[in-house]
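SAMPLE LOG
Freezer: B-3
Tube label: C17
Construct: single chain, 131 aa
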Amino acid sequence: MGLATAIRQQLEAVRVATAGPDGLQVNVVHEPWIGQDGRVKPIFDTAVTRPALVQFRRPQQLRSEGQQIAARVILSFFGPVAPNGAIGRREPFDPRDKITLPDGTTGPIVDVQSMPAPDTNEPLLTVVYLG
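STRUCTURE (predicted):
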């Protein structure tokens, strides 16, 4: 068994173990940013519900593009997330997207990281940090 297969199997085991009504994953609402109107108000595509592992943290100082930012929620999405495809956005999560947790918590996306498969470079896990 190769490294890529081992990583996939372990992540799948974590996904399965944390899913379900008594699991640690919850459904979050992802509203992909697709543009702005004439008054520079953001326009969002149809909301998508996605399961995610949610961690609440005391604000952590992270560095993103030379800035220090505070992340208070960390969301982990298992497997690849399909791109929205709108022009001018970063995929699969753009900093202008809106993500809402079941309790109504939301915040700006301050960083997005992914763990690519060593054999295909396809994301096995995508982590989104909310400020």
